Amino acid sequence: MPIAETDVRWVKAPTLGLLDRLYLPAIAQGLGTTIKHIFQPRVTQQFPEQRPDLPANYRGLHRLNRDTDGRVKCVACFMCSTACPARCIDIVAAPSPWPDREKYPEMFVIDELRCIYCGLCEQACPCDAIELTSMFDLTGLSREEMMFDKEKLLSVFDQTAGIGKDPVRTKGGKLSCASEPNVAGI
Amino acid sequence: MDYSVIITILVVFGILQGLAGGLVYVERKICAYMQNRIGPNRVGPVGLLQVLADGLKFIMKEEFVPRYADKVLFILAPALGVTCAMLAFAVVPFGPTGDPSLPGYKDDYQFIIAKNVDIGVLFILAVGSLTVYGIILGGWASNSKYSLIGGLRSSAQIISYEIPLGLSLLGVILISGSVNLETIIWRQATTHWNIWFQPLGFLLFMISTFAECNRLPFDLPETEQELVGGYHTEYNAMKLAFFFLGEYVHMVTACFLMVILFFGGWHFPLIAETDSWLIVKLIVFLVKMSAFILFFMLIRWTIPRFRFDQLMSLAWKVFIPLALVNLVAVMIVKELDLWLWLLLPASLAILAGAGFITTKPAPRKVPV
After folding, report:
1. Which CATH architecture describes the domain A62-174?
2. pTM of the predicted protein model
3. In chain A, which residues have their Cβ closer than 8 Å to the Cβ of B351?
């Protein structure tokens, strides 16, 4: 169906006047803009010295949280590695040495090079044991170095939990909502 | 044997080469400021040693010549470019000069390498336009499509803009009655600056200078977006640095020329008169020149690049007729011995007239 004549709006290009044709006022206006910008505040961030102010929900390096006794919170339920779209979480479970839970991770390795930092592991975790921090500038000299094991992930917790940027999201004392269903309201 | 000339040559060329490096730094800083950035600030205090770091990098790099390039011309091109740019500086006064008509003029020290050259402006135009040979040779010798197109564009551009460049100067030369740069300065210092009589000539000269120096908005020989690097696509290390050196020396010369021809050289009313101290005159001169360099850099980040056909039509359809009409106006005033100040309204009238002519709507083209 052709477009109706009433729907067509004809736009004419604006005609240039004398001052427009001389182009000099326009150039002066452009110079005014550039000069104005010289005196405006700078937006550059001096990166290594000046750290960016990241939002609280920033998805950076993972950490394994500790409970109030300093033990790893994780109960080796495999929810995170199941949810992981990149298949970068490798867990080996073992019977827990502590009486308040059945299992604990004997080995917990995240391949930080494979991880896509989607945060699904954090959402999947029933006991808030794995969280993404605001650390983003991790480097390594080899692939093996970028396989973060349990000790390394716990040390990330030790580094980030105190600085206030990445607060631990569950209250201390309780193991998790998984072990105490009444608390979480499920 | 006059040793002061040799010392002047050494000092001037030393400073010019350092200045080219310094200008790169200034350009990067100004560019950054205009984009609300900070610019180079890592090497040395506020990044001042960036110049040294860049220079060191240029020297330390491997001198690479593409296998299919014409080796002789490939190496000759940047050398030719920088030599011609430096050579043009020989007759440019870079500081206070005296009255060239006095008999003792040549015996006193003057801030110029070749004193009292009677073909000053002609020499600069002739040698200055030779720098394009460096560009064309570089583009040709690289044996690369991008370089060749860059060199071709450059040759077409320089040939076109040589004409308005020379024509716009003729008015000044007629008013001054000389092509000797020192005489032109002295005449302005004792009467009035040429800008009052030749505002249109100045405008044309300045814009043509942008094209001559391959500066944005006319940097078509090295358009990064379409030609990678233009004529210096295949160049690296010190040879590339020589191209830049030539370009910046050319720019400095052009800025000096604009100050000398239109803004009275070292003269400034009440501050730097003919009997002022040398140092005051020198500072006034250099401040004026720096102001023009800053203006060059401001323009660079203000106006987008012209298309090639726009560039050509600007030169041939606008600048050459305007410069000719301007020249005729000066000739009439000089021939009839009219009041020189008539040229100020005349220039503005010519400019406005040109605007009026183009404001008339063009006949609508009907597609067949």
Report:
1. 2-Layer Sandwich (3.30)
2. 0.78
3. 22
